[in-house]
Amino acid sequence: MYEITHKKQLSENAFLMDVQAPLVANARKAGQFVIVSPNTEAGERIPLTVAGADTAAGTIRLIFQRVGKATAQMADLQVGQSLGYVAGPLGKPTHVEKFGTVVCIGGGIGNAPLLPIATAMKEAGNRIISIIGSRNKELLILEEDFKAISDEIIVVTDDGSYGRKALVTQPLEEICQRQPRPDLAVAIGPAIMMKFCCETTKKYNVPTQVSLNTIMVDGTGMCGGCRVEVGGKTQFVCVDGPEFDGHQVNFDQMMKRQGAYKDLEKKAMDQYQEHRCRIGLK
Amino acid sequence: MDITKLLNEMLEKKAKGELKAKDRYTIPMQEMPAQDAVARRSNVKEVATGYTAEQAHLEALRCLQCPTAPCIEGCPVRIDIKGFIAAIADGDNSKALEIIKQNSLLPAVCGRVCPQEVQCQEKCTVGKKFKDIGQSVSIGRLERYVADLNQSSAVPAVAPATGKKVAVIGSGPGGIVVAADTRRAGHEVTIFEAFHKPGGVMVYGIPEFRLPKAIVQEELQTLEKMGVKIACNFIVGRTRTIEQLMKEDGFEAVYIGVGAGLPKFMNIPGEQLVGVYSANEYLTRANLMKAYAFGKGADTPIAVSKKVAVLGGGNVAMDAARVAVRLGAEKVYLVYRRSEVEMPARIEEVHHAKEEGVIFCTLQNPKQILGDDKGNVKGMEVLRYELGAPDDSGRRRPVEIPGSEFVLDVDTVIVAIGNGANPLLQQTTPGLQFNKWGNIVVDDNCKTSLEGVYAGGDIVLGAATVILAMGQGRIAAAAINEYLKT
Ligand SMILES: Cc1cc2nc3c(=O)[nH]c(=O)nc-3n(C[C@H](O)[C@H](O)[C@H](O)COP(=O)(O)OP(=O)(O)OC[C@H]3O[C@@H](n4cnc5c(N)ncnc54)[C@H](O)[C@@H]3O)c2cc1C
Ligand code: FES
């Protein structure tokens, strides 16, 4: 169970994996995620969006960034080895219908959860404008995949090492100024990016969906650790989301909660790095 | 007096048929031996260490064997308490266990976590005689004693295969009982569990120091030896729906024992701050994910707290407070709106929490949680209450004292004010009837509005107890076995 059938390094810290999980592959819809752990016992439970699935092979595609110990352990696993477990699919699927023109904005590793949504939107007959960005050329992922499903694509990097030198909000603003206006925006990426995307689209009254990546434990509504304030009300990202009306989300608060374990996570990561050195992984 | 001597004296009288009620009354109630209160603050080992053979024997002799046995009526699953205590008094502990097991499948668990003082022991004639429930025969401790003696119980016999499949959703006490009882009838049984480890609240909620996980593991292993399959990481409603299980996967009967599982918050300002946890999250991080061993084999972090406020007065609140103590907090406050007598927690837990240094702040209620500029908890504004006139239920209602606000200096707040019903199955199971609180509606046989679908435990009763979940499991299993006969 949960055997890794394919693995690819997308950039310095981004990895793609296909993992055996036939039931999840069957049930999953765009926008849903899974909880995975690199090992079965006391490993951390991490939420990852299902970036795609192959129902015939019974595999799901996960794309993740090496940020902490658990993801570093995952990145060290090879084809033929297995994850501790995969549970899901979790969360509400994206509401997909024909809206008209949909702008899809992805930042960094956020391009991974954005891809299945953009794909589903395309399949529903929407015109897709993709804006995908990253800090630099090295970190940009999934450009080809987005090209394949987009009617128009804009690539930006913070440092201008590839595509246009801009933040995603700049082309977004230009697109919002076009007539007719886009019917929907979908923004996924770091919280700060989603926050500014929402501020931009709000000015032009373009409805905007965001997919939130809060800290989670169970992923089933049991702990409340994933809670955010949306429209002044407490919502659980794992069961009420992960997608919300971006104009209603209290991003500032969410960003603070995301940083809750920064120091402890760093400690775990340092320990793991030391362990990797000792056992001779580079 | 020396306990060995006393026991021998009593046994001698008993042998001669001369042991009278007045002799029994002279036997002091046997206290539960426990780990030293200071030492246990820094370990997660079980606090109550269990009766010795002599203590158990003596305690059993305190039972009057009164003709009416009102204790049995106080037991939600009607264990023959009088009978099992008589067996202990006769020195036949395995018979005692056999008697208990006729009605309860998890005596080692129930002996530890049942609220005996509002069940069997509340009715005990000995307690009545002394006008003190604390002097009742220690039924729970005796139950635990005989259960612990016989940890390696034989695997129950399984009837010849019926070829019928039963799905059990949730591996809490209710689910475990249903799985055992339907498997014994020869059905093919699969338990589906959302978490990566089975056991329900007994594993992720109730801490090791109160209920060693090895006990639950043992029960689950027995199930597996009987041939019950346990599918973890399987979220019914998401991975597969109940409809798919029944229509496509061949399950003819389903038991829903998914527990309560949706934490309530106070809805006061500041609840989104970093350092505010639901008890579910705090306990899950600590118990299931073993955050107490963070950096030493476990990878799930938990706040490193110095001063913790726990809101609530039930078992969950006590557990959270005592976990905080063990995780190294210097001060742990338990903030409760009513007075101590109203606390729903087991008396023993209240007692242990106090011994461990938890500071009880009764007749107090938070108004808001205060944060610093980084969004971390830096204090909690609390309002004092006093007891006012009795309400309809006869309990004196707490009323706030205007202007009595003060700030409690804390860096972590744990909300333990109960759980609502998780809406996942409601959202994904058309035709299944729920009440307005989101609990599943069942009849006397624990049958739901859907054919072949039964439910019990916290998802039906609201947050309840292990024994009630188990009791409903028994009823549901009997009904399922009956249903599958046709
Ligand atoms: C901290 C704490 C302390 C407690 N202390 C006591 C005590 O001292 N004495 C006492 O009698 N009671 C106590 N209780 C209450 C008692 O634990 C519960 O009443 C009892 O466990 C309920 O049993 P259950 O069978 O309904 O299921 P639960 O034990 O709640 O288990 C339900 C299981 O179902 C799983 N599940 C949920 N949804 C799904 C799904 N969709 N698909 C698959 N699986 C799913 C959950 O992950 C869980 O493992 C306490 C509760 C808590 C939280
Ligand atoms: S992750 Fe626990 S409630 Fe959402």
- How are the strands ordered across the major sheet of chain A? 10-9-8-7-11-12-15
CATH class of the largest domain in chain B: Alpha Beta
Mean pLDDT of chain B: 91
CATH superfamily of the largest domain in chain A: Nucleotide-binding domain of ferredoxin-NADP reductase (FNR) module
- The radius of gyration computed from the alpha-carbon positions of chain A, rounded to a whole number of angstroms, is 18 Å
Please state the oligomeric state of the protein chains shown: heterodimer
- Provide mean pLDDT of chain A, rounded: 90
Helix proportion range of chain A? 25-40%
Total strands of chain B: the figure is: 16
The class by helix and strand makeup of chain B works out as alpha/beta
Bound molecules: flavin-adenine dinucleotide, FE2/S2 (inorganic) cluster
Order of helices and strands of chain A: EEHEEEHEEHEHEEHEHEEEHEHH
Helix share of residues of chain B? 25-40%
**Main sheet record of chain A:** 7 strands, mixed
Could you give the count of β-strands of chain A?
A: 15
Main sheet properties of chain B:
5 strands, parallel
